[in-house]
Specification:
CATH class of the largest domain: Alpha Beta
Number of domains: 2
Strand content: 25-35%
Largest sheet: 5 strands, mixed
CATH superfamily of the largest domain: Dinitrogenase iron-molybdenum cofactor biosynthesis domain
Structural class: alpha+beta
Helix content: 10-25%
CATH architecture of the largest domain: 2-Layer Sandwich
Strand order of the largest sheet: 3-2-1-4-5
CATH topology of the largest domain: Nucleotidyltransferase, domain 5
Number of helices: 5
Radius of gyration: 20 Å
Shape: globular
Order of helices and strands: EEEHHEHEHEHEEEEE
Distance between the termini: 31 Å
């Protein structure tokens, strides 16, 4: 296989750091030669602090690095379009592994180049829900355990929902606990 310059969203500046699944909000990117494993670290700190447009800014930074392929977890539609316009291919759903492992999987041909983004556009704030899962013993408790709406804040898909007496958090919905055994979910989430 011929050498390819990769940009891998990462939690740190070494090959043994883990892949960060959030393209636009990743702390940085390792720009790596797929064969020699020579690399440099591209800090993504500015994009992390942006209220909007983090994915587009990250795409511009990656394109400017000379990378031909991005390996990451999730890419939103605007960032995906910006990468496509710069002729940078995207390998998505790369997570739960080190940068070194991601390169090995790429070199083996186990990472598919995407034809569309795998994440919808996100807004910085989202609503959460809480649902009662246990019967209430009294009318007052029953009223307090009704399904409720709450505010939530998410980044990169994680979020927290709160309402009624339940509370939960997790990736795209998770179990929670509370007086009524609430279940937390999310709509919205952080920008990528």
């Amino acid at each position: 296989m011929e050498s390819t310059t990769l940009a891998i969203s990462t939690n740190g500046p070494t090959l043994d750091d883990t892949v960060n699944p959030r393209f636009g909000r990743a702390p940085g990117f390792l720009i790596v030669d797929s064969q020699s494993l020579e690399f440099s670290y591209l800090d993504n700190g500015l994009s992390q602090t942006m209220a909007q447009g983090a994915g587009i800014q990250a795409a511009q930074n990656v394109a400017g690095s000379g990378a031909k392929v991005v390996l990451t977890g999730y890419v939103g539609p605007k960032a995906f379009t910006a990468l496509e316009a710069a002729n940078v291919q995207v390998g998505q759903d790369v997570e739960n592994m080190t940068v070194r492992q991601a390169i090995e999987e790429f070199n083996k041909g186990n990472i598919t180049i995407a034809s569309s983004p795998n994440s919808q556009g996100k807004s910085g704030m989202g609503g959460g829900t809480a649902q009662a899962s246990q019967p209430a013993p009294t009318a007052q408790a029953e009223q307090s355990c009704q399904q409720g709406q709450g505010a939530g804040r998410g980044q990169g898909g994680a979020g927290r929902g709160q309402g009624g007496a339940g509370r939960g958090q997790g990736q795209r919905g998770g179990q929670g606990s509370g007086r009524c055994g609430g279940q937390g979910g999310r709509r919205g989430g952080g920008r990528f």
